[in-house]
């Protein structure tokens, strides 16, 4: 089983965005040493508690301070941008870090309606044009526009010796089928979906051309030396999601001490139980077993792990334990 990391660059309550970004760089260096395959950075805009609206900038720093781990976006939210600009930015990364760059592509807004307008104008119109935007981006990456196309005469320079590898991210059959149609590898967000993930990934493989399909599943995991400690650590992110569902939690991931003083309503307890359903929480042996069971359901050989705790040290420890057992 291959393991990779998805980093949302969370800000712990009481810490600054600078500290959160520095923690991301430290985590990437650790992942590089531990043998993780990829380190991908998510894109969010004006979402309090998350500190990375520009994955390519953070990846440039991470790439300069790591040796072998693959670097990627999880994901570039394509309707926010012109495909040419995205190709240029990831060509810069691929030029600096040859053979190490993935270009994950998504279509979510990554923020509020106002943010979408500030970034892209008519976002909904661009979402409708997602297949066309994707085609244009792939042409710039592959340098294969038809001669009659006006863009055939330009290059998304610099042109790297090894192209960035495009991936399509999603949580629905629509995204899975688009990935299959475009002959792209696919990443399914198990940690953020209530859909039948294994069926969606199966449909991707069924519709893909022979020998063209590759899939990764992204899973939320918190691993600690004991089950009790893992359950305790998990409280921070679970509580943060409850707060954000009410428009609160804008100062970042709360501490465990804050959570322990909070009294949940019946509805909030139900939400916590629902959130836990899509997470793997436990000691190394438990986590390994649950990941192996999930691997059988999805029939994939790589999982991308997202871990959010209030303590950056506890997050690093979680990834260390995973690397040791798997």
TrEMBL record:
Please state every residue range assigned to the domain named Luciferase-like: 1-295
Coiled coil regions in record: none
Signal sequence range: none
What InterPro entries does the database record attribute to this sequence?
Bact_Lucif_Oxidored, CmoO-like, Luciferase-like_dom, Luciferase-like_sf
Write down the superkingdom of origin. Bacteria
Q: Which GO terms of the molecular function aspect are on file?
A: oxidoreductase activity, acting on paired donors, with incorporation or reduction of molecular oxygen
Q: Name one GO cellular component term.
A: cytosol
Q: Which Pfam families match?
A: Bac_luciferase (PF00296)
Similarity-based family: To bacterial alkanal monooxygenase alpha and beta chains.
Name the record gives this protein:
Luciferase family oxidoreductase group 1
């Amino acid at each position: 089983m291959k393991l990779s990391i998805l980093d949302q660059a969370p800000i712990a309550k009481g810490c600054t965005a600078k500290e959160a970004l520095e923690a991301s760089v430290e985590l990437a260096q650790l992942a590089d040493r531990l043998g993780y395959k990829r380190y991908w950075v998510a894109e969010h805009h004006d979402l309090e508690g998350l500190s990375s609206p520009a994955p390519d900038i953070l990846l440039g720093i991470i790439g300069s301070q790591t040796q072998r781990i693959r670097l990627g976006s999880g994901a570039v939210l394509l309707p926010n941008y012109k495909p040419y600009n995205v190709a240029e930015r990831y060509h810069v990364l691929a030029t600096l870090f040859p053979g190490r760059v993935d270009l994950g592509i998504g279509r979510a807004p990554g923020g509020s309606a106002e943010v979408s307008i500030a970034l892209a104008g008519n976002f909904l119109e661009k979402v409708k044009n997602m297949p066309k935007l994707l085609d244009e981006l792939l042409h710039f990456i592959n340098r294969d526009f038809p001669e009659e196309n006006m863009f055939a005469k330009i290059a998304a320079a610099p042109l790297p010796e090894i192209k960035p590898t495009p991936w399509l991210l999603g949580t629905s059959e629509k995204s899975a089928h688009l990935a299959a149609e475009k002959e792209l590898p696919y990443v399914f967000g198990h940690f953020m979906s209530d859909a039948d993930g294994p069926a969606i990934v199966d449909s991707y493989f069924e519709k893909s051309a022979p020998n063209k399909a590759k899939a990764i599943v992204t899973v939320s995991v918190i691993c600690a030396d004991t089950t009790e400690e893992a359950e305790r650590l998990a409280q921070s992110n679970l509580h943060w999601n409850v707060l954000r569902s009410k428009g609160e939690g804008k100062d970042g991931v709360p501490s465990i001490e804050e959570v322990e003083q909070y009294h949940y309503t019946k509805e909030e307890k139900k939400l916590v139980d629902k959130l836990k359903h899509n997470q793997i929480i436990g000691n190394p042996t438990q986590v390994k077993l649950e990941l192996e069971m999930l691997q059988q359901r999805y029939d994939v050989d790589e999982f991308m792990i997202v871990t959010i705790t209030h303590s950056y040290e506890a997050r690093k420890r979680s990834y260390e334990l995973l690397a040791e057992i798997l």
